[in-house]
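call fold(seq) -> tokens
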Amino acid sequence: MIRFITRFSPNLAHALFLVALGTGVQADTSRPNILIMVADDLGWNDVGFHGSSIATPSLDRLAQQGVEMTRLYTNPICTPTRAALMTGRDPVEMGFAHSVIPPWSNVGIPLDEHFMSETFRDNGYQTGIIGKWHLGHHNRAQAPNARGFDFFYGNLTSGPDYYSHQSRVGGLDWQRNGISIEEEGYNTELIATAAQQFLTNRDPDRPFLLYIPWNAPHTPMQAPARLIAKYVGELNPQRIIFSAMTEAMDTALGEILQTLEAQEIADNTIVLFFSDNGGMPVVGGRNTPLRGGKGQTFDGGIRVPAIIRWPAKLAGAQQNDQVMNVYDLFPTLAAAAGIAPGSKKTLDGVNLLPSIIENKRVSHKPMFFAADTLTPEAVRYGVIQWPWKLVREEHLSADAGSKIWEFLFNLEQDPQEQHDLGGDQVEILVELNQLLADWKDRAPQHELRFNNFPHPGWAPPTDWNNALIDTPGIDVSFSKDKRLSQSLKLRLRDKLVKWLDDSGT
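ret:
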């Protein structure tokens, strides 16, 4: 049962424009449809085609029919990966390289950033997002319907209850096109149903871009009882529910792919699947044989399972070891559709479609990674200038002072990052540290640590959709000339912590 509980509706003028656009115009069936599906916290060893014990037959079949991209790198945490996917730019340029957007934050991806959805919509594509947004939830201008998506069904923040659809901090976070809804059902299954309805109700004479950012298998750890029972016997109790959540997502994903087959559009539909970051072992995710996990810059946190399928252009059952970053996906998909990305800003991503089609490796610019969440008193960094990789961890506290750990790996020879070569390759270590220092100086780092906890007196809204402010033109973000340096922020934080400890507060 669905109950609508607010007054908002989609922009009528835009809807009428879309109807007019599809009227009296020759059918456009030559350009590919695009279906992007992003798992949340799915680890390298959480899929069957990497040897997992979790049943993922739909993903295994997709890998067999498509090309496994074995060296796709994301960010170690959620929001930066999604920002890079949507913009084709390094999230450091937007101030979101280190952390996620927490529920109590009023910041979002700056409104002058051009989204992939805007490019495809402006070029005649039907656009939809079904699932998790997590790119801004304070201003209605930050929401999906204002950022190039004709259709939105899902949640604005992260980690909602899979059954009640309440935010992890409270308040309903479930809507369709700006209309809040109370709805019964399991999150993953509802997303699949909505995706099938989108495909059924679309205009068959126009291509579509459908983005499905699953909540699964992110916390809270909830799954249908029938699937949990299947995995009882796992030594790790968390792994039981994690496995059930992952299988539920795989089943839902398979139903969507079957809809493509039933509509006879699978051949010219690009299906892209990957995880937003590595798995989180504490809740059951596994990244073996890679080192580390979510929130870390070892490969277990940033190298993710990834598949692309396009039967019309790509032979199946292939592996492609091209080094690529999530920000390369926007220009690559735009090239596949024969359109320009359309952003007025310089993209960090490049078109890697020729490399994927021809299965040839090309050089890639240095890539940078960062995270300051999940681990108290630590900021983690990574730099890859293939085949070399720097992992740097900065642990700072008022009591212990600063401690810095550095590792240098040759990923071509040591993909499991077991052999630190920093002592033998000092020049390379110095070079990568300089690249990191230059990268840190490129843009604001406003979210470092200060945003990890709500300010005193903050309380969640009862309805996240209704809490969006409607004032147009407000862009709560941070400019490069109004930033605190990372070191200053950490010093200020530590002074505050020490003062609280000394005062007994």
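The longest strand covers residues 388-397.
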